[in-house]
Amino acid sequence: MLRQECGIPGTGPVSVVGQAGDAARLATYINDAWLELQGMYDNWGWMRLPFSYQTVAEQGDYAPFTTTNDLTGLPMTDLRYWWKETVRSYRTDIGIYDEQWLVEWEYQVFRNTYRYNAQVSGRPVVFAIHPTEKAMMLGQIPNTIYTMVGEYQRLPSSMTLDTDLPSGLPTHLHKILVYKAMQFYGLFEAASEVMARGERGEAALMAQLNREWLPEVSLGNPLA
After folding, report:
1. How many alpha carbons lie under 13 Å from residue 122 in its C-beta half-sphere?
2. Count of domains in the chain?
3. What is the C-alpha separation between 163 and 179, in angstroms, rounded?
4. Which tens digits make up the pLDDT trace of 90-136?
5. Quick check: helix, strand or coil at residue 81?
6. What predicted TM-score, i.e. pTM, was given to this entire model?
7. Cβ-proximal residues to 207 (8 Å cutoff; 6+ apart), any chain
């Protein structure tokens, strides 16, 4: 589609791997457009995903790769940041009826309280995020198996293989990537008409994407 939109003669490519010349540049433009789109906002709703993991008795800290992306069932290796206001837990042997919220504490206060001296294990009621490792640290240290659930924002992904897809981006808005890539092509080739069509197309679809997948603007509570 990008080749046709840019007016480049020929067909394809049928693969993005091992290409050269125009085909390689077109594949790169699409990937660059995908990376740029993902990085436009820190809170895209289509990049927000659910997670869950089960605690281990007497273990307090849980690295991201030990948790599971609930949509894929795979280890969560793409953590950008936790949505801290979504963290809940329940005793696994009791089930969802035992679910309770956890409150986030500032890391240093948490460390001085729950990682100081000998600790008595129990039900976790607060948590902190390690500033460098991004591990979720629970306090109290769990005394049994709890199921932790919540949401996280994923890191941007690349599309470099034939099987790669723009994960999370609504299908009806995939052409945003084509329009953005047209602008990269237009800059490289000094093709102003391709640039202009890319800008118009992107603007229309971006307005729709923003409406659907950015948080609504709302007024805060009154101060008094």
Report:
1. 7
2. 2
3. 21
4. 999 999 999 999 999 999 999 999 999 988 999 999 999 999 999 99
5. strand
6. 0.89
7. none
**Residue 79 near residue 64 (C-beta atoms within 8 A):** yes
pLDDT at 220 over 70: no
Closest to 82 in 3D by CA, of 67, 97, 100: 67
- Residue 48 CA, chain-centre distance (Å), reads 5
* 20 plus 53 within the same structural domain: no
Q: Are residues 113 and 143 in the same domain?
A: yes
Rg of the chain on CA atoms, in Å: 23
User: Per the domain annotation, does 207 fall within a domain?
Assistant: no
Q: How far does Cα 159 stand from its chain's mean position? A: 15
Report yes or no: 87 and 127 within 8 Å, Cβ to Cβ.
yes
Tokens 């052409």, located at residue: 175
CA distance 47 to 98: 29
